[in-house]
Amino acid sequence: PGLIYRMNEPKVVFLIFSAGKLVCVGAKKEKEVYEAVEKLKKILEENQLLIYPE
Question: How many domains in the chain?
Answer without folding.
Answer: 1
